[in-house]
Amino acid sequence: MDPVILARVQFAMTVMFHFLFPTLTIGLGLLIAVFETLRWRTGDPLWDRTALFWTRIFGLTFVMGVATGVVLEFEFGTNWARYAAFVGDLFGAPLAAEGLFAFFLESTFLGVLLFGRDRVSSRLRWLAAVLVALGSTLSAFWIIVADSWMQTPAGFEIAGGRAWLTDFWAAVFNPSTLQRFAHTVVATWVAGAFLVIGISAFYLLRRRSRDVALASIRVALALALAGIVLVFVTGDQSARQVAYTQAAKFAAMQGLYSTTAGAPLVLWSLPPAQDPSAAARAPEIVVTRLLSLLAFGNVTATVRGLSEFPAADWPPVALTFLAYHNMVILGTLMLLEVLVLAVLVWRGTLESHRGWLTAFLWSIPIPVVAIQLGWFTAEVGRQPWIVYGVLRTESGVSPNVTALDLGISLALFAAAYLVIAWLWLALVRREVLRGPGEA
Amino acid sequence: MDLPTIWFVLVALLLIGYAVLDGFDLGAGILHLLVARDDAERRAVIASIAPVWDGNEVWLITAGGALFAAFPLVYATVFSGFYLALILVLLGLIFRAISLEVRDKDDSAGWRRTWDVLFSVSSLVPSLLFGVAVGNVLQGLPLEADGTYRGGLLGLLGPLPLLTGVLALAMFVMQGGAWLALKTEGEVRRRARVAAAAGAAAFAGVWLLVTIAALAVPDPRDLALGPVGLAAPLVVAAALAAFFWAVSRGRDGTAFAASSLAIAGLLAIAALALYPDVLPATDAARSLTVENAASSELTLRTMLVVALVGMPLVLFYTLFVYARFRGRVSAGGAAY
After folding, report:
1. Domain spans of chain B, in order of start
2. Are the C-beta atoms of A293 and A287 separated by less than 8 Å?
């Protein structure tokens, strides 16, 4: 098999599987910081039990993220050696900064939070929770700096076949860094909140640990509300940024083949074809002119279609389109769910709506899936480039890693990740069944 | 000192930090089945490293990031060249983390036995391979004209690299044993002292062999090392002597400090032997040096500012947290 495909499959698998865990811990860490603040300020044992319980779930999830994350720090060198040599002057710096400013902070203070209960003061325990949350958010910042540079490279020049840094701040705050960081972080708030809401709903369904469940839901609902509103605000900004900086990706996301003035927004359609001659599509639901309005603030604005670009520069159109549209559909679904939850909590009738409680329990994976689809849109939509418009993906692989090497590593990682997925599910289930205990 | 040399030193310091700190929890893992015989003793071994192993591993991750930032060509050449070996190291680190995390989550004997064995194996394999990797780098790689290494996994298992692999194992056994002697009580402490002394004896013997093997190959750079190059081996020898003295007197703290110093000294010898190469090649024209493999001056200068801001903070809270967790763990341990 083609080593480039195998290397891409391995990177996609390792990064997507790893990111399942930070998706949950960034938002959950923030909630734990809030629970710890309430515990520290009020001294109420309810907040103590609440914080302790969620910290146990957090610890399990965080370690799975650490175990699967180490791979990524080295994978640019093992599998993408030519890419690493090409971009090293720019790309290594954010990874080193992530280690120095984020990984040390979160892992050191997680140790205090998990094991230091009887060794540190109440205030230090609170501080540890805050620093763990800060560390995981900083980590998201630096890795998105690195990834955004691959999307919208800035602050560099090419000389002697390599990219060289010319302006550090322009590279760090390249055109997509802030929008993508904001969109990712608020999405993880929703994911963490849905986890807490879902597990709490389970307790309300089982009529146990009612006090912890209700207290957790109140705080998580506030974060979910803020998060889902900001997901749409930052998603809109991100999409507009893509329209301006990555026109071919934007066209693939929207399934737009011909450059159109007053382009319609496709809400739903069958997946578009890669073949430009088959561009005419079967049934679709569109809103006239809305794409032009959303992207460029003007109903008559021209949106560039895929036909403006050589077919060799197109991303996989159907995958990009489907990932993007399904992300938006799931986002809308979550917005509705959060609004329903807000009404039920506000009316005080949540516990009698057992159907909704069941729905919240089974909704735990929805934000996780939506976030994976979002990354899929971003990274598949970047193809065929590894650095957008600068270096092609196939030019980035390690020339000395064979298909056999890749087959072995891919099989080993896949087997290991199956074990890890099973362990995480089984152990979280066990923690949930054990529960926070009654007062 | 010029910027590439400063970064050579900084990456070396990060790796020394990793070897000293993760060295004790890797060593504790290697010794886990030997020095802790029943469940309570094994819980004590795990409890002694549980709050800190994750922070220790960040030294490796940060060293990887710093190598990428400062010497991208070395990062690309070494990691793609050592592909399968590095995949094995990564799988080891994955299963080490998982074993530490899940071992105490179920009390069936089979479950604990499984994770105890996996913890030990996944500590041993990366330790050995770290040593093999350093041996290959010191020996120089047969790089091709396009700058890649294509000798595969078997090509890495030459006599000198295997010897440095054993040296790394001995070094981590010494460090892990010294840590467990310092942190545990009773039988585990007694066995850990014996293991640490055996590790140190093996370390001294294999180090002598490696030195003879290295000196047997004439290399003009050996003469250029100067007084620093002569001082480092003396530091290691003195640290080993202090270690044996401290162990015989039952001074666990001093023994751990001496063991840490010996590790730092040994890696300093390796760094001095390499410099100004970062990755020597058998054909010297293809060697990657601090000059031809380094990032631009702007990147190195920017990253130096980042390191000067970040490292003191890291050292400050790392020391603070270690101080909070000082003292012995009792048998039975602690799980969250």
Report:
1. 3-322
2. no
Query: Tokens 């002394």 sit at which residue?
Result: B197
Q: Do B76 and A107 touch (CB under 8 A)?
A: no
Q: Quote the minimal CA–CA distance from A323 to chain B in Å.
A: 30
Q: What are the tokens at B308?
A: 């000067």
pLDDT, greater one: A394 or B222: A394
For A174-211, write each residue's pLDDT tens digit: 999 999 999 999 999 999 999 999 999 999 999 999 99
Please name the residues between 56 and 85 in chain A that touch chain B, using a CB distance below 8 Å. 56, 59-60, 63-64, 66-68, 70-71, 73-74, 76-79, 81-82, 84-85
| Mean pLDDT computed over A326-345 | 96
Phi, psi of A6, deg, nearest 5: -60, -40
Whole-number Å distance between alpha carbons of B296 and B46: 44
Alpha-carbon dihedral sign for residues B309, A150, A135, B336: negative
Q: What is the pLDDT of residues A145-174, one digit of tens each?
A: 999 999 999 999 999 989 999 999 999 999
Count: domains in chain A: 1
Q: What is the ipTM of this complex?
A: 0.90
For residue B323, give every residue at least 6 positions away whose Cβ sits within 8 Å of its Cβ, in sequence order, or none. none
Residue A271 domain flag: no
CB within 8 Å: B91 and A423? no
Band (pLDDT 50/70/90 cuts) for residue B180 is very high
Query: What is the token pair recorded at A265?
Result: 């927004």
The minimum CA-CA distance between B37 and chain A, rounded to whole Å, is: 24
State how far the Cα of A350 lies from the Cα of A340, in Å rounded to an integer: 10
**Dihedral sign of CA atoms B238, B242, B245, B247 in order:** negative
* Residue A348 DSSP SS3: coil
Residue ranges making up the domain that contains A377:
3-259+304-434
Query: Which CATH number applies to B3-322?
Result: 1.20.1630.10
DSSP 8-class letter at A284 = E
- Angle A130-A136-A140 (CA atoms, 0-180°, nearest 5)? 140
pLDDT (tens digit per residue) in A380-393: 999 999 999 999 99
Q: Which residues contact A69 (CB under 8 A, 6 or more apart)?
A: A18, A21, A22
Nearest CA among A360, A386, A322, A69 for reference residue A197? A360
B72, B148, B303 ranked by CB distance to A400: nearest: B148
Gap between the Cα atoms of A96 and B70, Å rounded: 10
The C-alpha atoms of residue B308 and residue A90 are separated, in whole angstroms, by 19
- HSE-CB of A398 using CA atoms within 13 angstroms: 31
Side-chain-facing half-sphere of B331: CA atoms under 13 Å: 13
Residues of A with Cβ-Cβ distance to B302 under 8 angstroms: 93, 165, 168
Phi–psi pair at B224, nearest 5 degrees: -85, 0
Give me A159's structure tokens: 């000389």
**pLDDT of res. A183:** 97
- Overall pTM > 0.95: no
Cis before B126? omega within 30: no
From chain B, the residues in CB contact with A100 under 8 A are 62, 306-307, 310-311, 314
Using a 10 angstrom Cβ sphere, with 0-12 exposed, 13-18 middle and 19 or more buried, the burial of residue B273 is: middle
Contacts of B326 in chain A (CB under 8 A): none
Res A276: pLDDT: 63
User: Is-contact B300 A91, C-beta < 8 A?
Assistant: no
* Residue A95 with chain B: CB contacts under 8 Å: 64-65, 68-69
